[in-house]
Amino acid sequence: MQVSGNLLNLFDRTIRFSQLTIEQGRIYQIDELGTERPGEPYLLPGFVDAHVHIESSLLTPAQFARLAVVHGTVATVSDPHEIGNVLGVAGVEYMIADGQRTPFKFCFGAPSCVPATTFETAGATIGVRDVRRLLGLKEIGYLAEMMNFPGVLHQDPDVMAKITLAKAFNKPIDGHAPGLRGDDAQRYIDAGMTTDHECFTYEEGLDKVQRGMNILIREGSAAKNFEALIPLLTEFPDKIMFCSDDKHPDSLIEGHINQLVRRALAKGHDLFKVLRAACLNPVLHYRLPVGLLREGDPADFIQVQDLQNFAVQQTYINGTLVAENGLSKVPDLRSEQVNRFDCQPKKPDDFAVMMDPAQNEPAIRVIEALDGQLITNSLSFAPSLVENRVVADASRDLLKITVVNRYQDAAPAVAFIKNFGLKKGALASSVGHDSHNIIAVGCDDESISRAVNLVIEARGGLSAVADSQAHLLPLPIAGLMTDVDGYTVAKQYTDLDRFAKDTLGSTLASPFMTLSFMALLVIPHLKLSDKGLFDGQSFQFTSVFTA
To answer: How far apart are CA 86 and CA 185, in angstroms?
Structure first.
């Protein structure tokens, strides 16, 4: 097979009209036929998402691949710790096996923090022996994000044992240290962490990159750090990569890494520096089996019409055309439905918050959700009371939030949250990072109970209720994913998202994605686990009441 076009060489920063000869999935020969020819298509390496949780797309790897290739993505660096928290090592193996049914190049990591903390109930544990077993697999390319950065700084034995194993297997170690700066950041880096995708200010990113860390610029459905961090690309092009981290199917339909390429170019960044971040750096850092348009490389590349819009015309993986003009050629595959879900329906009274009538001038701690960020703030408000019950107050945008243990029957943990903007009803989800218990937010206990029970009855899913209306997107695989065609799921999710905004009143850009992170204790400041309200600064439980 032969393909011709203006070939971008990311190593010598040139564009020459060339002809590729492809044999047995590899580039056998590159013939340079002259200088760049305006009007002819351009050939460049495929895009790589340098850090993503496939599960957060709500799709199996096979279905994720179908959507991603349309946008020129040929590979991902994928941390399977979401399903790992539900099913353990078996979940990681499930992701590997499902991904191998497609030509897409998934590089999975060995989850380093399952469960993420000891302050929540997960469905499984991935210990040191499990990490050793996973790192020994050829499909496992790295030790996935070390979220327990306090454990690194204090040299927790289990944490250090996992890091030591990764070094012994000569596999990179991903970091995760939001807000860590200065000497502590240096100690974290010195321990072996090579990347961070959690920087949310330019100053934090600059501090870490100057200390030798690779910075992954994240733009997902909930966390959006592109605007703050993209200036780093100018001075540190060899240390920057692009990633989505968590991307819901509706936004994956719209675009992927190609969107970040367009945005960076629109800001005036150098073409080859941008493509280095989007294509080259992840392949080199993680030693991915992904071609970079050199003789002998796997024939992984994309064809675009121009270098401004980067509209992807064709995507090739191992010499096979997997997408053309917006249509995926990756097969629509069904997958095995594995799960772990064992809790009973709840009653409205289970979500009641009682106040001691003898308490003087009470106040409640309130989680402040921040649109476009995973971090939260801790606020304090006077409670709204009905017969010694603290209730949600939609007029002040003070809603109830709950986390319900899905692995065993237990009393729900209940607290209060601001900035969801709901005027009525409730949302619930079995996608609740990282342990994936059921998490819900709502305006009244009856609605919260209805939304939670829809998820319980389906053994996983996203739900929204108001008045007599009830909507559900089932997620039968680990309570996280579905193997339904990704385009169909994207429409279902879009309809659910619109209901949450137009009917319930949510003011967030991505209410379900934001909700899913309100139980992620390793991101400060105030979060909720199935065991109670958690202060991410002091790293301990705290009371709903402040006085």
So the answer is: 30
Write down how long the chain is: 547
Q: Extract the tokens encoding 155.
A: 């040299």
pTM higher than 0.90 for the full model?
Answer: yes
CA distance 314 to 465: 42
Question: Tens digits of per-residue pLDDT, 159-217?
Answer: 999 999 999 999 999 999 999 999 999 999 999 999 999 998 999 999 999 999 999 99
For residue 235, give the CATH number of its domain: 3.20.20.140
Q: CA 175, 197, 506: angle at the middle one, nearest 5?
A: 130
Tokens of 125: 């544990």
Gap between the Cα atoms of 55 and 248, Å rounded: 9
The alpha carbon of residue 323 and the mean position of all alpha carbons in its chain are separated, in whole angstroms, by: 24
Strands of 140-191, DSSP E: 140-146, 173-175
Distance set, CA 3 to CA 258, 289, 543 (Å): 22, 21, 64
Supply the range of the domain harboring residue 96: 49-287
Q: Compute the distance between CA of residue 229 and CA of residue 198 in angstroms, rounded to an integer.
A: 11
Same domain for 429 and 500: yes
| Cα–Cα distances in angstroms (integers) from residue 92 to residues 63, 89, 319, in the given order | 17, 5, 28
Looking at the structure, do residues 355 and 250 belong to the same domain, yes or no?
no
What the block records as the tokens of 401 is 């939030």
Write out pLDDT tens, residues 295-343.
Answer: 999 999 999 999 988 999 999 999 999 999 999 999 999 999 999 999 9
